[in-house]
Amino acid sequence: MKKILLFLRCHWLMVCIVIACILRTTYFIEISRIPFFENPVGDAKIYFDRAQEILAGTLFPEEVSFHSSPVYPYFLAATYAPLKSLAGPRIVQMLTGVMNCIIGYYIVLAIAGYGAACIAAFLMAVYPLFIYFEGDLMMIPLVLFTLNLSCLMLVLYAQRTKKRFLAATGILLGLSALGKPDIIMLCPFSTTMDFLYGTIA
Length: 201
What we know:
Layout: H1 2-31, H2 43-55, H3 72-80, H4 87-112, H5 114-126, H6 128-134, H7 140-160, H8 163-179, H9 187-196
Helix pairs in contact: 1-4, 1-5, 2-3, 3-4, 4-5, 4-7, 7-8
């Protein structure tokens, strides 16, 4: 029993990654059987139709579109093209979900310690809504991934005060905002962090 507990303590992040992969693989197999897997409806269809236009050579829309994320159709086009299947985008999105477990672990580890980091990684691995949206054709998984990555860059900036981490934070927040514009409200916190560490040029 002690050996098992010691193993879990030393390799908990790996355990969470394995759990995340198993749950996402199981869910992927289940949704691959439904008719809408390759024939999306609603918002997903709007994104997919635009992705098909991009693959046909129309890189920029003929009319201005205000439908949510302007970047997500390009992601769909890039991930759909290799397999000619909507399995491609879903697989990539689920991989970002697994990466979020790792990123979340290191963010919380730096802020709150090992115990809290283990809990965060586990919750991100098993949270049903994360898994659901990673299997859907919406921009939410990419928004979460870039937002989490921007938080990690901010943590690294706080630790090392290197400008490149702050620049990466801004770029990633900008990418997140392309999917969810209200994320722009977080940008002042990056400037505040820069001010607190006295590195404004």
